[in-house]
Specification:
Strand content: 15-25%
Mean pLDDT: 94
Bound molecules: zinc ion
Largest sheet: 9 strands, antiparallel
Number of helices: 13
Shape: globular
Low-confidence stretches: none
Number of strands: 19
Structural class: alpha+beta
Radius of gyration: 20 Å
């Protein structure tokens, strides 16, 4: 079996965890039609009851943003809502093929994008609620597109070479090679990450203190009942799935009002089709009180103001600096890859499964419990080879969790 076929099999069977009789919807860019078709075939081979493909196209999205009249933005579209409702009601599993040109929306009026993204997030909320509570099995993975590959490998001779380089980098990061079975590789990887999560659960830290030479000096308190999560979750369907391939993170939610100090971004943040870079954010009692960026500060502002509670944190994720993705030394311009090369935090929503006792709670109750609720969930990278993380236990003992950017437990 070639590596492409192994990769598709890994995503459908181990990623989505698709079982015979289940339905699957594949979100796929039209430029990657071959990949959508391969995934569909693989899903039917696995016994899928029905497979739908939703094709998307970011280039026509750009044309729309640049040319449509003002009142074409910011209103809900009934048939899209009906489609979301149908997928939720029918219990579809989800495979998202995520491949965007990081600068596709460069030069587009950010107010238009902001307005439209807000509505898109409202329309897809019934589905994103299922996703964030692991009610459905889902997987997010990437496939090279010419624009993305050329951005990541600007020195490649031509488009073809850039795409080949990108594929090899993706295979390496996703533990897909000629000699071994990636399904076995992922079993071992999941076990190792779950070992770290178990250790963190035992230690039951009250807070974590992040420090590095960039100037980061940040304390994140962890709510009582916080849960450390590694990949390999069980969905409410009873089946295991891996939400992201690749993944290297072990993560939980900080207390929404327990974040204090300053943190520096250590990688560019791709947001709304452009790049925010060299930025810092200062928190008091969980809320952002000051921030700055050398590049595109206005986008950082818009990110923090887009939705209620986007200016609080919802995720703290630990990723060793020596992960294969980080060691590749590539700046991926793709959150799925960059977040797995670096410790990160996320503005906005915390995931329900990161806190015990969240079933059937209202948004207000969840906020009250310390789990931030927002329509935003945006990761940003804070890891570095010099990152130190000290955990403080409930009885005040300090234990090194990360030393020199890597696991110390
Ligand atoms: Zn994460
Ligand atoms: Zn995240």
């Amino acid at each position: 079996m070639d590596k492409l076929q192994k990769y598709v099999k890994l995503l459908v069977n181990t990623g989505v965890g698709l079982k015979a009789g289940q339905k699957l919807v594949i979100n796929c860019p039209v430029d990657l039609a071959y990949f959508g078709r391969l995934a569909m075939k693989e899903a039917y081979d696995a016994g899928a009851a029905e497979v739908l493909i939703l094709w998307n196209d970011e280039i026509s999205g750009r044309i729309h943003y640049l040319n449509a009249p003002d009142d074409a933005f910011g209103h809900e579209i009934e048939w899209i809502k009906a489609r979301v409702k149908y997928l939720v009601d029918e219990g579809y599993c989800l495979l998202n093929v995520y491949a965007t040109d990081p600068e596709n929306l460069k030069g587009v009026n950010p107010e238009r994008v902001q307005k439209q993204q807000k509505v898109n997030q409202m329309m897809s909320k019934p589905l994103s609620d299922k996703v964030t509570s692991s009610a459905v099995q889902w997987n997010l993975a990437s496939v090279p597109t010419p624009s993305w590959a050329k951005k990541v490998f600007p020195n490649a001779k031509n488009e073809e070479e850039a795409i080949d380089l990108m594929w090899e980098a993706i295979y390496a990061a996703c533990r897909v090679d000629d000699a071994t079975d990636p399904v076995d590789n992922w079993k071992a990887h999941v076990d190792s990450l779950q070992g770290k999560a178990n250790k963190l659960m035992e230690l039951n830290f009250k807070s974590l203190h992040f420090k590095n030479s960039y100037g980061t000096d940040l304390i994140t308190e962890l709510p009582a009942g916080h849960v450390w999560v590694a990949c390999g979750e069980k969905a409410k369907t009873g089946n295991n799935f891996i939400a992201n391939i690749p993944t290297e993170e072990v993560f939980t939610a900080p207390h929404r009002e327990g974040v204090h100090g300053i943190v520096y971004g250590t990688k560019p943040l791709v947001y709304m089709g452009d790049v925010i870079d060299e930025f810092w954010v200062k928190f008091e009692k969980g809320k952002v009180v000051e921030y700055g960026a050398k590049k595109n500060e206005h986008l950082l502002k818009s990110l923090l103001e887009l939705h209620k509670n986007a200016d609080y944190l919802g995720e703290v994720a630990l990723v060793p600096y020596n992960s294969p993705i980080s060691q590749s030394g590539i700046l991926w311009y793709n959150t799925l890859y960059d977040e797995n090369a670096s410790c990160h935090l996320a503005f906005g929503r915390g995931y329900n499964y990161c806190l015990a006792g969240t079933d059937d709670k209202t948004e207000d109750e969840l906020n009250e419990m310390g789990l931030n609720q927002s329509l935003t969930h945006e990761d940003f990278m804070v890891g570095s080879p010099c990152l130190e993380i000290i955990g403080t236990t409930q009885d005040g003992k300090e234990i090194a969790v990360f030393t020199k950017g890597d696991w110390a437990i």
